[in-house]
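Thought: the user wants the 3D structure for the chain below. I'll pass the sequence to the structure tool as-is, report back what it returns, then summarize two notable features.
Action: structure_tool
Action Input:
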Amino acid sequence: MSEQTHKLPGDIERTSLAIIAEELAQRGLTPPLENEAVVRRVVHATADFEYAENLRFTPEAVRRGAEALAAGAVIVTDTNMALAGVSKPALAKLGGAAFCYMADPAVAAAAKEAGTTRAVAAMKYAARQHPGAVFAVGNAPTALFALCDAMEAGDFRPALIIGVPVGFVNVVESKERLMSLCEKLGVPAIAAMGRKGGSSVAAAVCNALLYTAAGQLDPAARGWQG
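Observation:
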């Protein structure tokens, strides 16, 4: 019978991240220091080292995203699952908040009237309500397209866009458009290129940024034992 060597949550997380760092080095995939926290957190959430290769960052995206959150910027997600995964204690420490409007009756009515997806209507609504937010898209490529349309149409310039939708239809195209446009406009962005992604990845990126902003990358700073 194998002996359980790590039992406390802080020790488990710290050991996991150390294993990830070692394996990244062995694979020749050690990320730049500025992006390290995000890459490690996503690999930690997925146990998938391919994210070390397909995560793409605009210049200073992590720093600028963390600074926005430290200043109280809100987070907007495209799914309630991603919203549930965002660290509420870290948000509270920074004086921030997180929202998802997918279940909002007004958003549902707007989507029906416009003949579009609820994700599009939710992002359009959120862009008006929180133009300086960190937007985290882990499911709907239509949400990324809506954010891109809003940026091209006017002065909408969010603090950061996290583009990690998962799937097979318009997913690759939405991320490519996002990165191209954000690089052109100088809007910070983080994307998982290709088909991979999901709500858990969106939440993991948000938490890496929140922990960076709140000085909580080590679990002991979050009150975890071990």
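Final Answer: Structure generated. The CA atoms of residues 103 and 149 lie 22 Å apart. The first strand starts at residue 55 and ends at 57.
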